[in-house]
Amino acid sequence: MICISTRGAAPPVSFRQALLAGLAPDGGLYVPQALPRFGEPRWAELRGSSLAELGAAMLGSLVGDEIAAGDLRALLADALNFPVPVVRLDEQLAVVELFHGPTFAFKDVGARVLARLMSHVHDAGQPPLTVLVATSGDTGGAVAQAFHGVPRTRVVVLYPHGQVSAVQEAQFTTLGGNVTAVAVQGAFDDCQRLAKQAFADPALRDRAHLTSANSISLGRLLPQMIYYAHAVLQLDPGARPVITVPSGNFGNLAAGLMAQRMGAPIARFVAATTVNDTVPRYLASGRVEPRPSVATLANAMDVGDPSNLERIRWMFGDDVDAIRAVVSASVHTDDDVRRGIRELDARFGYVADPHTAIAYLGAVEDRGAAGAGAPGRLFLSTAHPAKFGNVVEPIIGRPVAVPAPLVEAMARPRQVTHIEPHLAALAALL
Ligand SMILES: *Cc1c(COP(=O)(O)O)cnc(C)c1O
User: Is residue 307 a contact partner of residue 215, using CB atoms and an 8 Å limit?
Assistant: First the structure.
């Protein structure tokens, strides 16, 4: 597979190189130069496939002989060891639940596949790859869980001491093994500065085999195509649904557009956002005008300058009309979110977190023609409601059951290394 930079000023690289590099040297994001297209007979053949089988077919056609087919299937089966059910709400509407992974949020899909891809391409006999991540709470858990127990890798999570929630802290301080949790005496900004300083130090980077696992990584993006295809192949043959994506950094939507380009039967997309609406404003005006983000109830979507918009514009040759033909947008306030949670519960007895509620509202508001075949509208659910019990419970007026693994993590002992916010302290530990 040939990967090129969205900015066109970096040499093309292999998938393996793009995987370990993260950002391209010209500051752009890596994208596959071309996407293979499966015809209808191929999709018909793939009906009923597991996530791993479908993923092996889709990613295998991209990466070619860079990863042996059997290895790819095995690592996908190991990564995607949880269901992604399509739950029908009525004749027209269904929700795709992406939150059944270990941290109960959809980022598990991309992060778990990325971890195993990185482990696979990192030579045996070398010291382990060190994934360094600075977190204000959620990313640390998803990345730590994704790499936990994966051979030839270790994770170092930097977090601000005393400034993450108890549940978040439990998700990365109780794993042990190849996961090291480091409480930094300082704020999140100190953690991020330390990580940047470590990556910028060539000697340290080489010695510790440092790499990152952030959301711009192509190895996190491509696996997200799989659940789009998996979901639409569960609908009636001939169905071409409209899919609503609750969007922040727009990696999820970019992956959906790639799945559609590979021929997956999807009519079009609705990008549903919080009031951090840079992409909806871009679709309306044709101008990209990022703004500082504001905090909302759907905090994982509070992004003022979504990095994956660059990939989407690249895919469409920077032609906003071409993007408008397949993506419409909807913007929702916190009051809308509360209404959405209440309505989903009242109409369908379905308990949703704030991010999922935004996807629901976008699906309901979308005035365009739904795709043929029932159900014509799918929306993506990106987090388990128990992760946002403080928001959801007062609205629905009853407790949300907390999944057993979250309860168990809370009860396990914490293992934490404390450091002062200086590179020397971090370097000693690496
Ligand atoms: C990250 C995240 C999103 C946004 O996904 P993007 O790919 O950044 O658009 C939505 N919901 C939840 C729960 C998330 O964690």
Answer: yes
